[in-house]
Amino acid sequence: MRDQPAMLFDLDGTLVDSVYQHVLAWRRALFDQGFDLSAWRIHRRVGMSGGLLVHALGRELGHQFSESQVQEVQAAHARYFREVGEGIHPLPGASHLLQELTRRRVLVAVATSGTRETAGASLRKLGLGTGVPVVTRDEVPFAKPDPDLFLAAAERLGAPVASCIVVGDSVWDILAARRAGALGVGVLSGGYSRQELEVAGAFRVYHDPAALEQRLDELGIRM
Amino acid sequence: MRDQPAMLFDLDGTLVDSVYQHVLAWRRALFDQGFDLSAWRIHRRVGMSGGLLVHALGRELGHQFSESQVQEVQAAHARYFREVGEGIHPLPGASHLLQELTRRRVLVAVATSGTRETAGASLRKLGLGTGVPVVTRDEVPFAKPDPDLFLAAAERLGAPVASCIVVGDSVWDILAARRAGALGVGVLSGGYSRQELEVAGAFRVYHDPAALEQRLDELGIRM
Predict the structure, then answer these.
(1) Contact A87 B24 (CB under 8 A)
(2) Do A122 and A16 touch, CB atoms closer than 8 A?
(3) Does A165 share its domain with A175?
(4) Which residue range forms the structural domain that includes residue B81?
(5) Residue A98 in contact with residue A128, Cβ under 8 Å?
(6) Nearest Cβ partner of B17 from A38, A193, A195?
(7) pLDDT tens digits, residue range A144-179?
(8) Shortest CA distance from B27: residue in chain A
(9) How many domains are contained in chain B?
C-alpha cells in the first residue's frame, strides 16, 4: 500500500479561531504609532510574516517604517494579543482531525508565520500531541508567503514536499504551498471567502477542520 | 437639470470601522451562553438585525434560542461592544464623503440594523451633521436583509427609493437594497470579498468611502 500524503497545517484561522483577535491587536499596535489602518486591510494581510505585514501596510499608508518601528509594532501586537489570550478557542473539530489523521498514519505538522511566543497560547489551547512538529517564524529565514515554513515542516516529517497537502485559511498559505510544490487546500475559518482561496489556487475549500475531516477521501487520505 | 440620486449608507463597516469589534462582541456574548461559534460565521451574519443573527447562528449550531436567550445575547453584545468603544474609528474618507455629497446637493441618510444605543457611539465618532437622517433598527418592524430600513430612509428624504443608491459592506445590505428597488453598491471595508458583494448584486465595489468619493461619477453623481 502506498504511503498516505503528509499534511501541513497553518495555525491561526486554520486550527484555532484567532484571526479576528490578531486583526484588532495589529490595528491597536499600528494606531499607537499614529497609523489609522482599517481592520479589513489588516485582515487580508494576516498570515504573512509580521515584518512583511507591517512593511506592506506601511506601503498602503505611503509610509516607510524603520526597522525599529517595525519591531515596536510587532511587540505591541504581541502584547495586545496576549491580553485576549483567554478568548482564543480551537476551531470546531481541530483536535479531533489531528487525532484522526494520526490514527490513519498520516504524518502531520504545524507551520505558522507567528513567533514561538505568539503561537504558544494558541498551541496550548489546541492540546497538540508531542508527536506533531511545530515550525514557527523564528526557525526559518522567511515566513509565508515564502515556502520556507512548509519546506521545513515537510523535512521535519521526512516527507517529500511534493506529496504534502497544505491546509490554510489565507491566500498566503496557498501561495506558500504552491511555491513549495505542495497541494493547497483552503478553510473558510479565517474569514477569507471561498472565491479568494479558489482563485489563489486552493484545490478544495472546506468550512473548517470538522468539515475537512468529513471529506478526507476527497484529498486521497484513505481509512 | 435632473435631481441627483439620493444616497443611503449603512453604518458599521461602511462609514465606521467597527465590524471586527462587533464580531468579537457577538462571539463573547454567545460564548457566555455556552455557544462556541467561530468568528468567521458571525462575521458573515453581521449587518443583519441582531435577533435574526442570533436565530440564524442558533440554527447553524442546531439550537433553538428562546426569546429571553436572544435578548440576553443581544444585551451582552451591546455591553461588550461598549467596552471597545474607544477603539472605533471612522473609515477613511467617511466624513469627507458625506460633506462632499451635501455640497453637491445629494440627499444623504444612514440606515443601520444596529439599535439607536449601539449605533450611538459610532455615529458620534463620525461627527454626522444634523441634516443627515439616521434610521435605526428601533424604528422599523424588520431590519436588514428586509428592505424596511432603506425604505424608511428614502421616505425620510422624500426621495423615490427607485432612484436611491444604497452603499453597504455586507451582502445583507445588497439584498435589502434589491428588495427595496434601489441600486446596491459595495465597499470592502467590512471584510467581505469583492466577489461576494458582486455575486450578491452590487453594481460596483469600492475599497472604502475615500475610494468611493473618487469615483462618484461612475454612479451618476454630478459635480
Answers:
(1) yes
(2) yes
(3) yes
(4) 19-86
(5) yes
(6) A38
(7) 999 999 999 999 999 999 999 999 999 999 999 999
(8) A87
(9) 2
- Over the stretch B197-211, which tens digit does the pLDDT of each residue have? 999 999 999 999 999
C-alpha cell at A121: 497560547
Predicted confidence pLDDT, tens digits, chain A (223 residues): 568 899 999 999 999 999 999 999 999 999 999 999 999 999 999 999 889 999 999 988 888 899 999 999 999 999 999 998 889 999 999 999 999 999 999 999 999 999 988 888 888 889 887 789 999 999 999 999 999 999 999 999 999 999 999 999 999 999 999 999 999 999 999 999 999 999 999 999 999 999 999 999 999 998 8
Cross-chain CB nearest to A195 (options B27, B40, B195) = B195
**In a mutagenesis test of the A interface, which of B12, B15, B20, B171 is the best target, namely the one with the most A β-carbons within 10 Å?**
B20
Task: Return the residue of B nearest to A84 by Cα.
Answer: B24
Q: CA nearest A84: which of A29, A10, A139, A144?
A: A29
Instruction: Say how far apart CA A13 and CA A27 lie, in whole Å.
Output: 17
Q: b/e map of A30-57 (b: 16 or more CB within 10 Å)?
A: beeeebebbbbbbbbbbbbbbbbbbbeb
The cell numbers describing A75, all together, are 511587540
Using a CB-CB distance cutoff of 8 angstroms, which residues of chain B are in contact with residue A19? 39-40
Alpha helices in B50-168 (DSSP H): 50-61, 67-83, 94-103, 116-126, 148-157
Give the minimum alpha-carbon distance from B77 to chain A in angstroms, rounded to a whole number. Answer: 15
Instruction: Please give the Cα distance from A106 to B68 (Å, whole number).
Output: 46
Residue A48 and residue A12 in contact, taking contact as beta carbons nearer than 8 Å: no
B164: domain CATH number?
Answer: 3.40.50.1000
Separation between Cα atoms, residue A16 and residue A169, nearest integer Å: 11
A13 and A103 co-located in one domain: yes
Q: What CATH number has the domain bearing residue A43? A: 1.10.150.240
SS3 A56: helix
Chain B residues inside the 8 Å CB shell of A192 = 193
